Amino acid sequence: MSGAITDVPGVSVGHCTLDDGSIQTGVTVVRPNGGNLYRDKVPAAATVINGFGKSIGLVQVEELGVLETPIALTNTFGVGAIAQAQIRATIAENPLIGREWPTVNPLVFECNDGYLNDIQALAVREEHYDAASAAASGTFARGAVGAGRGMSCFDLKGGIGSASRMALAAGTSYTVGALVLANFGRLPMLTIGGVPVGRALAERAALEQRANADIAGALVAKPEQGSIIMLIATDAPLDARQLKRLSMRAAAGLARTGSTYGHGSGDISLAFSTAYTVPHEADFVAVPPCVADARLDPLFHAAADSVEQAIIDALFQATTVTGRDGHRRLSLADAAPDLTQILAQPTR
User: Is there a contact between 333 and 180 (Cβ–Cβ < 8 Å)?
Assistant: First the structure.
């Protein structure tokens, strides 16, 4: 196992990264499988933990419990362009859409990368979705790439993170994987493995009276105003109602890292299963026997663990980025070169 969402068989991830001066943004695409998702939909469900967000497609997912496009991640002002790209791509694959067949439900999630990226430039375009989709594979970069290029996390550099766990449920071993777009939190909140790492960094900065705007800004008592998108994939046979329950466990993993889902935070999770598909044209749908509700706890634990580890992965994988108007976000490695010693200290 690679420790990523792509450990779930069939799942692939691709990025298109825009790194050009004040333009620090991009697109990330997650494909549940390599097939025609409109013709053979994937069971899914979402949970809105805090709804300060501008995603598109959640209403139909809530109603019908399926995905019919890949999942796209980008910045807030890129949602419209990426949704249009998804529509065009799906029509090209299924020419009857909007005529003999119903329209398609694009699914785009967003976070605001405006601190590092000139979001007003509307730099994300349709071709960037196409490039990210074409690049989708079982191995992919994490950190300051794709949609994560301009994202901040705990006043440090955030972005794309991923992790996976194995879970034994009802006597069968299943894989649960998570991918996050991490763009939330204030530095003093950051907790890694139960250790208040962010508080230690903030206290050190205050003690040293560091004239470093990258860290000093984190010492100002500002509310949490970021967002996070958490995607959970599994090969366990679950129906949409059970996937809704699984998606809710993302909140447990998020909370372990120190988040309190602040007023201005858009915290959304989505879970899907690759165990079966739902055909577009059918009179009856054959669903395999699903894991009994009373046997779901190992999957719940795996989902929470994977989301927590994916957030930490985003911080560890990210590199320092300078963007709009000279704004800079330090990577965790650059902000805390002695992180190993901090983690070894007794929890305060």
Answer: no
pTM of the model: 0.95
Using only the alpha carbons of the chain, give its radius of gyration: 20
The DSSP-derived string for 296-324 is: -HHHHHHHHHHHHHHHHHHHHH---EE-G
Q: Judging by beta carbons within 10 Å of its beta carbon (0-12, 13-18, 19+), is residue 1 exposed, middle or buried?
A: exposed
- CATH number for 5-186+222-279+289-334: choose from 3.30.470.20, 3.60.70.12, 3.30.450.20, 3.40.50.150: 3.60.70.12
How far apart, in whole angstroms, are the C-alpha atoms of residue 113 and residue 286?
Answer: 42
One-letter amino acid of 62: E
Task: Give the active site residues.
Answer: 227, 265, 267
Q: How far is CA 318 from CA 73, 196, 245, 311, 333, in A?
A: 17, 20, 30, 11, 8
According to DSSP, the residues that pair with 273 across neighbouring strands are 234
Residue 30 structure tokens: 């997650």
Which tens digit of pLDDT belongs to each residue from 305-328? 999 999 999 999 999 999 999 999
- Contact between 208 and 197 (Cβ < 8 Å): no
CA dist list (Å): 215 to 204, 205, 207: 10, 7, 12
Give the model confidence (pLDDT) of 15-49 as tens digits. 999 999 999 999 999 999 999 999 999 999 999 99
- The domain segmentation of the chain, as residue ranges, is 5-186+222-279+289-334
